[in-house]
């Protein structure tokens, strides 16, 4: 038995998401409910709204507030080489296959502020594949894309990134790839020569290219099952037969409808391979 | 006050939060669960963020029920115990599943107790039991308040009985509880389901 207040709040959240969709064409309607409730509550406090309906009213009438809210909703601060074991597994099990293609296309879906894209570019560079690779880095948040393209990260985090990088099988020193600038570090421009940063929504857009690897880590956790199925369906359609899909290490294909289209390559690192046509 | 609970009908889920001293306390708690214990138990234990956790296997050895670490959208099964994985918040998505999140740490912790308790309160309202154990943190206070606001039942380990008293004491001061119990009393209630 849920109390009426909780029912009302959920109703207000649904209305707000509908309003955001109609007004701004961002579709959060199939985002995971628990996370949405939590962020809505935080947003109400942050923007001084007593009710979700008040927040909805302001969002409809103040586009600037919406863009603040979008940062709030979608920006996930990640780490470079987060879960080093994942990148090590890419080096050991995926790179040897990618090497057999004359040109390689990769898709980092939901790249947010870009930590993973830059990590992948470094990995490809060290494997001698960056020159013939094209990385699509996509996100719904254009501000995050801008930040990602800037390749500038907080100096306070760099020690942790270096440690991750070493543990991921890095062949040099992470310091070889960046220069310091005030309280940040800026990664070598030449690494992003073959990265295309683009606005793309896993909720509403379709497949835009054929690729050999999709890396989409800790993005699906924010989706409900229906939207997870949609996103994984896009990945399946985008991947060549035998192409690879990498997920976050607590994400799984087993609860979704496309489980049969993939087989695990490195199960504990959530790296899969497309087997269906 | 709700001194006793009719387990079969009143409780659909139990959420548990623990921090410093939590491994020992949880070993006792899980050891007390009878094999026919039905309500699913969801647990946040504060963990180091950057290494894989073996807590589910370690404590599983002391428990008559299956104990596992959650994946995203993992099903909530009756008669089982689920731990939040290191470096993710674990939220109750609906009555049948959990969802993980990489939202900011709460009070330096990820997983944190507040997001689990609050999200569980939103889904299970008055059919939820929340148990807050030992810890040197103030995590859990907000979550426990949310549980009680939604009509759920809060049990807090008596601060003087806890290895680290800060977390239960802070929650009692902030949110209050239906019962303040020693770990042994909590375990006894589990054994008796009363």
From TrEMBL, chain A:
Entry keyword set: Methyltransferase, Transferase
GO biological process, one term: methylation
GO MF entries: S-adenosylmethionine-dependent methyltransferase activity
Record domain CheR-type methyltransferase: where: 1-253
Superkingdom of the source species: Bacteria
PROSITE patterns named in the record: CHER (PS50123)
Name of the protein in its database record: Chemotaxis protein methyltransferase CheR
Organism per entry: Rhodanobacter glycinis
UniProtKB/TrEMBL annotation, chain B:
A GO molecular function held by the record: protein-glutamate methylesterase activity
Span of domain CheB-type methylesterase: 14-194
Record key words, sorted: Chemotaxis, Hydrolase
EC numbers for this chain: 3.1.1.61
Catalytic activity: [protein]-L-glutamate 5-O-methyl ester + H2O = L-glutamyl-[protein] + methanol + H(+)
UniProt key word Cytoplasm: no
Signal peptide boundaries: none
Enzyme class, spelled out: hydrolase
One term under GO cellular component: cytoplasm
GO biological process, one term: chemotaxis
Catalytic-site annotation from UniProt: 19, 46, 139
Listed name of the protein: protein-glutamate methylesterase
Organism whose genome encodes this protein: Rhodanobacter glycinis
């Amino acid at each position: 038995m849920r109390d009426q207040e909780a029912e009302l709040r959920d109703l207000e959240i649904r209305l707000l998401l509908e309003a955001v969709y109609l007004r701004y064409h961002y579709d959060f309607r199939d985002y995971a409910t628990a996370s949405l409730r939590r962020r809505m509550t935080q947003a109400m406090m942050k923007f001084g709204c007593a009710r979700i309906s008040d927040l909805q009213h302001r969002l409809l009438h103040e586009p600037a507030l919406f863009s603040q809210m979008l940062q709030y909703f979608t920006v996930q601060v990640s780490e470079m080489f987060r879960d080093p074991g994942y990148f090590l597994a890419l080096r050991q099990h995926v790179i040897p296959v990618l090497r057999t293609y004359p040109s390689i296309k990769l898709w980092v879906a939901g790249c947010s502020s870009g930590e993973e894209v830059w990590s992948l570019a470094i990995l490809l560079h060290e494997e001698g594949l960056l020159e013939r690779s094209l990385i699509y880095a996509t996100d719904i948040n254009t501000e995050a894309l801008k930040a990602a393209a800037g390749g500038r990260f907080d100096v306070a985090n760099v020690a942790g990134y270096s440690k991750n990088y070493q543990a991921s099988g890095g062949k040099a020193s992470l310091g070889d790839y960046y220069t310091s600038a005030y309280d940040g570090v800026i990664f070598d421009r030449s690494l992003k020569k073959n990265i295309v940063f683009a606005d793309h929504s896993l909720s509403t857009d379709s497949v835009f290219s054929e690729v050999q690897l999709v890396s989409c880590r800790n993005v699906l956790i924010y989706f409900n099952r229906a939207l997870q199925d949609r996103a994984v369906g896009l990945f399946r359609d985008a991947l060549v037969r035998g192409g690879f899909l990498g997920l976050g290490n607590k994400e799984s294909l087993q609860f979704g409808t496309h489980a049969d289209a993939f087989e695990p390559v490195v199960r504990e690192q959530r790296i899969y391979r497309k087997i269906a046509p | 006050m709700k001194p006793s609970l009719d387990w079969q009908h009143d409780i659909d889920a139990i959420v548990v939060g623990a921090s410093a001293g939590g491994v020992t306390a949880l070993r006792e708690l899980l050891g007390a669960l009878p094999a026919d214990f039905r309500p699913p138990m969801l647990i946040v234990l504060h963990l180091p963020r950057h290494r894989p956790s073996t807590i589910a296997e370690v404590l599983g050895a002391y428990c008559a029920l299956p104990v596992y670490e959650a994946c995203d959208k993992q099903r909530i099964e009756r008669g089982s115990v689920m731990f939040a994985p290191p470096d993710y918040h674990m939220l109750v998505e609906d009555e049948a599943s959990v969802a993980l999140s990489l939202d900011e740490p709460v009070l330096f912790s990820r997983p944190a107790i507040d997001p689990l308790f609050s999200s569980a309160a939103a889904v299970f309202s008055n059919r939820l039991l929340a148990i807050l154990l030992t810890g040197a943190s103030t995590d859990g206070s907000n979550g426990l308040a949310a549980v009680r606001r939604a009509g759920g039942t809060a049990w807090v380990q008596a601060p003087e009985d806890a290895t680290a008293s800060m977390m239960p004491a802070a929650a009692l001061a902030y949110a209050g509880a239906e019962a303040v119990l020693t770990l042994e009393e909590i375990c006894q209630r589990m054994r008796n389901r009363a």
